Amino acid sequence: MPNDPYLDASVVWRIKSGTLDLHEAGYRTTKEAILSSGLAMEVTGLISAGKEADVYLALYRDAPIAIKAYRLYRSSHRGGGPVKLDSTGWLAAHEFEMTRQAWKGGCRVPAPARRVENMFSMRYLGDENGPAPRLHEIRPENPRALLDEVLRGVEALAGAGVVHADLSDFNILVHDGKPWFIDFSEAIRVDRTGSAPWMRLEEARVALDRGMGALRVYFGRLGVEVESEPFVSRVLSSLDRFGVLHD
Questions:
Q1: What is the CA radius of gyration of the chain?
Q2: pLDDT tens digits for 48-59?
Q3: What is the rounded distance in angstroms from the CA atom of residue 199 to the CA atom of residue 193?
């Protein structure tokens, strides 16, 4: 049984009492969970469905919000049981905190509101016509200018202590003409080490290289070259508070 601090007491109780339904929740069940948790007063529809989580459009005091709900049960094909409450609870808690850290740093991310178990609410990016489009849904008039904005956003995230490791064209929205970053499930904190400084810098390098690789693919299709090596070096230098890279 999971016994981690990020699991709410209600989850632990349901595991102990054997009252958990080991089938993945459908739309109606998830909607009821959102409403009963107090995250929203009304759920109006599904915004997107992913491999690990779904995002719902909801209302809280008549204001539109987005709610991300990680799936509770994902069968493991590498051994182990089907109940993944511990990992989905951790993912929700981790992403909520990464998004909150970036938002506190003034970055363009949806402002997080509350987390309950495997779900959390945040600002809805969109208008009456629908959610803000992702990069893969648009063809920008000026790809170079958009790339420059995205890179400034990545630098701002690092300055706030967060490195986004998955900068695919599915995880960047264009809202009010500006790029906004979502899905921080694989992000890492770089403003505090928790280990040897060189280890965290190496983790940041790997994450940045991976993110820049995704940007090279997207902007390469638009005929724009992404010079990732000097960019990654510049960001790492800004994070190197102890001069590790110069030793």
A1: 19
A2: 998 889 999 999
A3: 8
pLDDT at 193 over 70: no
- Long-range (24+ apart) CB contacts under 8 A made by 2-9 are 2/85, 2/86, 2/89, 4/86, 4/89, 4/90, 6/89, 6/90, 6/93, 7/85, 7/86, 7/89, 7/117, 8/89, 8/116, 8/117
Amino acid sitting at position 16? K
Query: What domains, with CATH codes, occur in the chain?
Result: 9-127 (3.30.200.20), 132-246 (1.10.510.10)
pTM comes to: 0.84
Q: How far is CA 94 from CA 101, 205, 207, in A?
A: 11, 20, 16
Sign of the CA dihedral running 32, 34, 39, 44: negative
Token pair 């509350």 in the structure block, residue = 114
